[in-house]
UniProtKB/TrEMBL annotation:
GO molecular-function terms, A-Z: siderophore uptake transmembrane transporter activity
Membrane topology summary: Multi-pass membrane protein
Top-level taxonomy: Bacteria, Pseudomonadati, Bacteroidota, Chitinophagia, Chitinophagales
One GO cellular component, as annotated: cell outer membrane
Entry keyword set: Cell outer membrane, Membrane, Receptor, Signal, TonB box, Transmembrane, Transmembrane beta strand, Transport
Signal peptide start-end: 1-23
GO biological process: siderophore transmembrane transport
Organism annotation: Sediminibacterium goheungense
Protein name: Hemoglobin/transferrin/lactoferrin receptor protein
Coiled-coil ranges (or none): none
PROSITE patterns xref list: TONB_DEPENDENT_REC_3
Length: 741
């Protein structure tokens, strides 16, 4: 009933709004705002005009991205001004989209989903495996995307398109490419990038490579609390772990790491209506120190001597075949076959302990996607397809004595050899009911299976294996009403879901000192409903504005709660008596908020742009079974920038800002993380407000040569973004150069 009422309100508001401003819009439409009609996005997995899509979509501006010079793909998402980024360590970046994060938001690259069966509810940094310097196009779809992408797309979808091989117009073979380099002072970053495209009329080859070396990150001087400072660190001298005073406590010792990215693509066009492309992606890092664990204290002393994420290796092969034809059951068809090989590990050793524990996980992920588009007539389009996904998980654990090298097996993080699969079919329909009114609706059926066998060598599980078979239907329906060429209004109601994965059902790990999470084999899917209303105004090169209001409900939510293991509420884990918890379907959550922004052209070369995000949410507390602040709902945040372009110059003055989250508004799980939060006058943890002022400049010397300079955090603020373990960079000078040929 609530859904019908919501739809009625959306339609009524559209009609009332149109009647109120119709007369004025007749005048406004004399000056045509064409941008809403011209912007193309890959919604429905095919190119669509933005003014026909009911969802809020942000298309990432690559020109401004190059000016901002983000170091990682997580930083690039942060430049949108609409996605909040959490970092537990410098080599990280967990996007928060409308109060959802981690395994409730989906990452898609070149049409292939990256999310796999061990994506966790805790913060994840898989998005940094993607290379921001090899990006051709990207967009963020806000709200559930389960119709097209299945499980995990509850909060939104981040859809990335990497560099694509181009074809030459004539018979000549052409060679083109880019080379760039960058240096940043706050972490002594050194990055080099090169890509080359060898093109023929029917055959094209592209290669891209990027290498980055990030040193220890230095925080700011002004504002912030002294508790943010890195006053001590552990270093092993001889055979002894000793605690040393940090000579410069603003330098966050053990935050540096290195990263390499490589892409190779081969594209073949045997005929005008056929397009074949093979792509190979490879990304790897060095060990990445987990900074938030390295600053934990126990008994008045630093708890860990080592805590690293091992190399984050990601490899993907994908073959894509696309065909177009005028008649038949489809107008366009795309078959994508992909294979991903993913490896991560956790390496930790407590201070004054000679045993270094390493837990290693691998995922082999195979997927087949068939997506079809049929132009029924001038007004109607049909999108439909099917998907198959299969994940196989490898998991192992060892202890190595760092003195004599002796290796012994320990409990793995997940059930080794477990599998997770998904089979789905979807259909989506678009109808231009009138010249100014479009309807979109969709339906998807998903069936998921999972099998796992538990090793009882280290834990006496009351079970040895488990399996899950569950199906579900998701739906979506939306309207876009274009009152004129400059005004647009939309409303959408959609559902989303997430199937329990291997991380939910089979994980054994220490979530916090004295708390151990154990498997629970009795889990069910969690579901979400989302209602959204938005309005946009755009008068090209003069003024644009958007306003989106949304509300989401999450039912049967998977969350950690106290649990009994073999009838016991506390067990010994890693030498510590620990409270037992497990993931359970006992929570509910609701998220609501506003996204708004505008761009005002003061002069054809000078404009002012602002984006603001206000998000609130509640979820069921892990212990008290009452509604408390939502963990992944960020503080009010936004950005304001002044942009100037003239001849070869591009200048940007930018302010980023966040509001405070008081202790009473922190989720209980965040209140327990005393090591990473500031302390209020009552001695309780909270997240202070912060701002940064930034200046960026670029100059194009010739068509092929350009240089960029930047000064970030000009006032050298010391701040730690909400829920982050690492303190953000202080004053940072960036210099880069790009050459095209």
């Amino acid at each position: 009933m609530r859904l019908y009422i919501a739809w009625a309100c959306i339609i009524l508001s559209c009609l009332l709004f149109n009647q109120t401003i119709h007369a004025q819009q007749i005048k406004d439409s004399i000056v045509s705002g064409k941008e809403l009609d011209e912007v193309v996005v890959s919604y429905n997995k095919w190119e669509q005009k933005l003014n026909e899509i009911p969802n809020r979509i942000t298309k990432i501006n690559l020109k401004q991205t190059r000016l901002r010079n983000p170091q990682t793909m997580a930083d690039l998402l942060g430049t949108t001004g609409e996605i909040f980024i959490q970092k537990s360590q410098q080599g990280g970046g967990s996007p928060m989209i409308r109060g959802f994060a981690t395994n409730r938001v989906l990452i898609v690259v070149d049409g292939v989903r990256m999310n796999n069966a061990i994506y966790r509810s805790g913060n994840i940094q898989n998005v940094i495996s993607l290379d921001p310097m090899a990006l051709e196009d990207a967009e963020v779809i806000f709200g559930p995307g389960s119709i097209l992408y299945g499980s995990d797309a509850i909060g939104g979808v981040m859809d990335f398109h990497t560099l694509t091989p181009k074809f030459s117009n004539g018979k000549k073979v052409l060679i083109s490419g880019n080379a760039s380099t960058r240096y940043s002072t706050a972490n002594n970053e050194k990055t080099i990038h090169a890509d080359i495209n060898i093109t023929g009329k029917k055959l094209s080859l592209l290669n891209s490579f990027t290498y980055s070396d990030f040193g220890d990150l230095k925080m700011g001087t002004n504002g912030g609390q002294t508790g943010y400072l890195r006053t001590q660190h552990v270093q092993r001298i001889g055979n002894i772990d000793s605690v040393f005073t940090n000579p410069d406590p603003r330098v966050q010792r053990f935050t540096g790491y290195q990263q390499r990215n490589f892409i190779s693509k081969l594209r073949y066009k045997p005929a005008e209506n056929w397009d074949l492309q093979y792509g190979f992606h490879y990304s790897t890092t060095s060990n990445i120190p987990r900074y938030d664990r390295l600053i934990e204290y126990a008994g008045g002393s630093l708890r860990f001597a080592e805590w690293n994420y091992g190399p984050q290796d990601w490899m993907m092969h994908h073959l894509q075949v696309q065909h177009k034809k005028a008649k038949g059951i489809y107008s366009q068809a795309r078959l994508t076959v992909s294979y991903q090989d993913y490896e991560e590990s956790r390496i930790d050793r407590r201070r004054a302990n000679n045993n270094r524990r390493t837990q290693t996980e691998t995922v082999a992920a195979t997927a087949i996607n068939l997506d079809l588009q049929k132009q029924l007539n001038e007004k109607q389009e049909l999108f439909y397809g099917a998907e198959f996904i299969y994940n196989k998980i490898g998991s192992a654990g060892i202890n190595q004595h760092i003195g004599n090298g002796t290796i012994t097996k320990v409990a793995s993080r997940y059930p080794d050899g477990s599998t997770w699969s998904s089979l789905a079919a979807y259909v989506s329909y678009k109808n231009k009911l009138k010249t100014n009114l479009s309807l979109s609706a969709g339906l998807r059926y998903n069936h998921n299976s999972m099998k796992a066998t538990f090793d009882t060598s280290f834990f006496k599980f009351p079970f040895t294996n488990t399996s899950l078979n569950a199906g579900n239907i998701t739906v979506s329906s939306g309207l876009v009403y274009r009152m004129s060429e400059t005004w647009q209004m939309s409303g959408v109601i959609s559902s989303g879901f997430r199937m329990p994965n291997i991380d939910d059902i089979g994980k054994v790990f220490e979530s916090a000192p004295g708390v151990v999470v154990v498997p629970n084999v009795n889990l069910r899917p969690e579901y979400a409903w989302n209602a959204e209303w938005g309005v946009q105004y755009n008068r090209s090169q003069q003024f644009s504005f958007y306003f989106n209001l949304f509300y989401s409900w999450l039912h049967n939510a998977l969350t950690r709660r106290p649990y009994q293991f073999n009838g016991q509420s506390n067990i010994m884990y890693d030498g510590t008596l620990s409270r037992v918890e497990a993931i359970q379907n006992v929570a509910r959550a609701k998220v609501w908020g506003i996204q708004t922004g505008w761009q005002l052209y003061i002069h054809p070369s000078f404009n002012w742009q602002t984006k603001l995000n206000w998000i609130k949410g509640e979820e069921t507390d892990d212990i008290k079974n009452e509604q408390v602040p939502l963990r992944h709902a960020p503080p009010f945040f936004g950005s304001t920038q002044l942009n100037y372009e003239h001849k070869g110059w591009s200048l940007q003055f930018l302010a980023d800002y966040n509001s405070e989250i008081a202790n009473k508004d922190l989720a209980p799980s965040e209140q327990a993380k005393t090591a990473i939060y500031a302390v209020d006058p009552n001695g309780k943890p909270y997240s202070p407000a912060w701002y940064t002022l930034n200046l960026k400049a670029a100059y194009r010397f010739t068509t092929n040569i350009s240089a960029q300079l930047g000064w970030e955090n000009i006032t050298n603020q010391r701040y730690r973004p909400y829920s982050s373990g690492v303190v953000a960079a202080g004053s940072n000078l960036i210099a880069s150069m790009r050459i095209s040929f």
